User: Fold this.
Amino acid sequence: DAEAMRSLAGSTRVIASTVGPYALYGSPLVEAVAEAGTDYCDLTGEAQWMRAMIDAHHEAATASGARVVHACGFDSIPSDLGVWFTQQQAIERLGQPCTAIALRVKAIKGGPSGGTIASGLNMIEETRNDPEVRKMLGNPYALAPTDMRSGPKQPNVVRPQQDDVSGEWVAPFIMAAANTKVVQRTHALLGRPWGDDFEYDEAMLVGDGPLGAVRGSVVAGGMSAFAGMAAFGPTRKLLGTFLPDPGEGPGPEAQEAGVFDLRLYGTTADGRQIVTKVTGDRDPGYGSTAKMLAESALAFLDLPAADVAGGFWTPATAFGDLLIDRLVEHAGLTFDVLEPD
Assistant:
C-alpha cells in the first residue's frame, strides 16, 4: 500500500523495517522514506534488492536528507563494524591500515529464521530466472557506487580448505556473499583508504587435522545440497514443508542460549598482523539481531545531519564508533583486540 507507506514515512523520524523477504515486500517503504527525508534501517541480507534500492532511490534520499542503512542485523553489523574496528585499531597500534582482513566464524549457535530462509529461497529463484542478477551476485563490488563496481579479484572460500591466516580448516560461510559486498561498499564510500587492492573474505572455522577436513566437507556439502534443492521447484516446495515460515524462529529460551564468536585476522602492507574478536550473547538471527536493529534505529537520533547527509550508507559509514559504543553498552556485543596485546 504505497499511500500508507508515504503516510507512515511522513509522520515519523526513524523507521526500522523487518518485512523480509524485502525484495517481495520492502520496496514501497524505501521509496517512501527516500522521498520524505525519513531515516531508515532494516535487516536485509538480500544484495540484489539492496543494489536495486540504491540505484533507484539514492538521488532522492540525497536530496531529501533521508539516511538509509540496510543490513543492520547479523547481516552485516558484526562484519562491517568488525572490519571498521579492526582498521581503526590497526592504524592506532600498527601505524597503518590492513590491506587484507579475513573474518572467521569461530562459534555460532542459533535457530533457523523463517524470514531469512524465505529471503534466501527468493534470492535463489531470482538468480535462476535472471542472468543479470546471477552476474551481479557474483561481483564482490556490486553494492559500491556505480563508478566503483570493479576491482581486484577477491578471495572466496567455496570449498573446504586449509586456512593460512588461522591455521585451521575452513568451510564456506552462508552469509559471506552479502557481508563481503557490504564491507566493500563501506570501503568504497570511505574513498578506499585501505588501498585499491584491499581484500576481504569470510569463512567458518571447522577444526584442525583430518577431523577438520571432514567437518568442512559436511558443511560445504550441506550448503550445496540445500542450494540445489532450493533451485528446483518440486524440491523447493518440499523444503517449505519442514522449514519455518517468515515470522517463525527460535523461542525465548533458544534465543537466550544462542551466541556468536567471530575472529578477524588483519594483515598490513608490511606483513604485520592484528587479530580482533566480535561476539554476541544471544541467538544471532533473533536475539542479537533484534538488539542490533534497535540500537541502529536509536543511533539515528544522535546522528546530526551535518555529520552524515542523506543517502544510502552502511552501518560503518553511517554510525561507526557511535554504534559500536551503543552495541557494547546495550546489546551484549563485544569488540576486542587479541593480538598484538
